[in-house]
Amino acid sequence: MADSLQHKILLSEDEMPTRWYNVLHDVPTPPPPVLHPGTGQPVGPDDLSSLFPMDLILQEVATEQYVDIPAEVLDVYKLWRPSPLYRAHRLEKALGTPARIYYKYEGVSPAGSHKPNTAVPQAFYNAKAGIKKLTTETGAGQWGTALAFACAQYDLECEVWQVRASYDQKPYRRIMIETFGGTVHPSPSDLTEAGRTILAQDPGSSGSLGIAISEAVEVAAQDPATNYALGSVLNHVLLHQTIIGEEALLQLAKIGERVDLLVGCTGGGSNFGGLMFPFLREKWAGRMYPVVRAVEPAACPSLTQGTYAYDFGDTIGLTPLMKMHTLGHDFVPDPIHAGGLRYHGMSPLISHLYEEGHLEAVAKPQSECFAAGVLFARTEGIVPAPEPTHALAATIEEALHCKESGEEKVILTALCGHGHLDLPAYDAYLSGSIVDHGWEDADLQAAVRAALENLPTLV
Amino acid sequence: MADSLQHKILLSEDEMPTRWYNVLHDVPTPPPPVLHPGTGQPVGPDDLSSLFPMDLILQEVATEQYVDIPAEVLDVYKLWRPSPLYRAHRLEKALGTPARIYYKYEGVSPAGSHKPNTAVPQAFYNAKAGIKKLTTETGAGQWGTALAFACAQYDLECEVWQVRASYDQKPYRRIMIETFGGTVHPSPSDLTEAGRTILAQDPGSSGSLGIAISEAVEVAAQDPATNYALGSVLNHVLLHQTIIGEEALLQLAKIGERVDLLVGCTGGGSNFGGLMFPFLREKWAGRMYPVVRAVEPAACPSLTQGTYAYDFGDTIGLTPLMKMHTLGHDFVPDPIHAGGLRYHGMSPLISHLYEEGHLEAVAKPQSECFAAGVLFARTEGIVPAPEPTHALAATIEEALHCKESGEEKVILTALCGHGHLDLPAYDAYLSGSIVDHGWEDADLQAAVRAALENLPTLV
Known about the structure:
homodimer, alpha/beta, Rossmann fold, 2 domains, 7-stranded mixed sheet, 19 helices, 41% helix, 16% strand
């Protein structure tokens, strides 16, 4: 009977995990340290204290296996968590595959993605430390939305510098940030020295994430009551996201299912790490043996085509140096629609695990990803954000292999957000105006080579 | 402890109701019949068979208390149903009220509102009858989105005429309809006699819902394999929506809570009836005694200021005559942002129940509603659609009365959709450019008086 299929595996609020998992406790070899660009020495807590509260700095270098989630954070999480795990029966049927496809859906959050999982604790720890305002940058706007919502929960001000091009072209995200009570400035702005410098050179500048970071960091560094918040890449961000994977393990256990393949998209790595780290713990403990696969855009292939080297996290070079897979800090990806994946580097933790052979990576052109997104929308009823359509494309590819081989593989994919505010990207795809950029493209190869020549020489 | 609060009351898929509730079985007095405008006689099934399949025509006049939901519909419902019931702890805290506020959230559906609850069975029954295509009209686009999704589930084509002004100004909904596989035409179009007639008179016409209905009905009437679908007002539409109220009753029973006040917004009445009808059954059976309150926009006050009379459902006068609260079929409401509430009439069933004293009604200006929506977003994390902000405004008003009186009233409100595609309306509110139109407005009174003069004279 059609009505006997179970589509959603739910957890009650009582069943929600109360601890984050710290993968640093279990990685077989420790990752390389973060270095101060001036001295070439590992950075210490004091180097970071003008921007972050001590609780987060300590989480960045924590070595215990679990970190308790504060009660005040759990209470806000429960506005949308535990998030549902879905069995994609109708997608499977459309594909005619014997594979069983599951997706963990983070689009139920206030911002519509996984970002509030870390925005909420970051706002909480800052408020606890007496901070009154958080600054940040945002491109397409997911992170700014999440932080604005989080700040509203703990009576913090939230000031967001949004890349001018996005501010002008995609006003929905800016409005959502303002609805949650945040303030948004187009970047470059005349509110900072960095912004004024850029505007003096180019009054019509459309901005970049690098410039927006500089503005947000400058404002945070000048005021002791103001801190800065980052939405991906760093260890404490990935720590907070592990609630995704912990929930998924509980949900799969409820139905007695064991996963053969885990698939997630990677930009900075926080959604991917959040789902995968608890599964890697289980794998290292010999309790399951899933293949773990990262999917990145062919136009920004940091894992599959980048170099593993020390590089800056931002374009201008204000951050400490992190050893990571990078396309070079001044590499500018083509303007693909998955804005959340347009990052030159990769989380140092994910990079280390990749280098050590704990995960594999593939790159996908965006037209294949949107085709997967449209099929998913029509069968499962959720229009995915452009970012997770990369994971869906790789999931569908595997499910079609299973159709040929007859294998009943169990695939779990991370559906990290909905695409309600990304509909113009679907319009471009449906009207045939999507352009693919990939590694076979000589221009892309030349751009990466040029950017890699600008890697820093350590003192 | 903050973390001991339960925010969501969930049902498993196994607990989902498998029957719709037919309020016609229990209304103390039967509502007046629908009349043929030419003969003045009650319409029969044959009068409707060129537009609707017999299963739906029979549901329109059904008298049994319950109608079984087909297995094929239950399977699609389970993509998002049962929908969550929330306790609004954080809103209550912000208000400082002793009232307990619950909201039933329909924004988890594929279209982001309650509309798929009826779009899915309408598409199913049409497919079962051998129909190949459904046509419909849409204004802002919620209904068109829901029907496009539903048609994709049963391999039906879906053709939507969208009011030209919305088509041009609000492309996100049009793109979402296309992503689900629907075809969208701006109305007036040159594809129909009705559209060509309008365009000949006014080549730059920005359209109206009435014109769009004429185009969709014309196309459906000409082709035996094509039918037409309506998203509100009719009895079978409200029947399908009763799954909302049936679920809410089960959810409240789980936590042993009894409701004192039910609040919902009314446009055509389907979201409101869907939540309220099962509660009215319980009230008539003497098992609970909730007050039932409809909230309509002050700019379109059909219940509080309209006349109870026979009128057309559309502007041009193609439909049968329904006895309902109406502002006159050629009344054109001011362009408020709650597009789903801009309807001159009210469901005949809701109108009858109002006339018989089973529910009360209030009207709210949109600025008060957006203020409620912003407070709700910042406390509960969901940006509501402009339509349910009307119910939220009335809910907050009551909760603040409780703060004064000390009463621990239990309030349940219908949060029938999210506002992700309505963010420009929030932008208008936050920037201070919202204009209120209400009954004290002499222009509005004059417009309603003029429209009421055009009520039909029955033969």
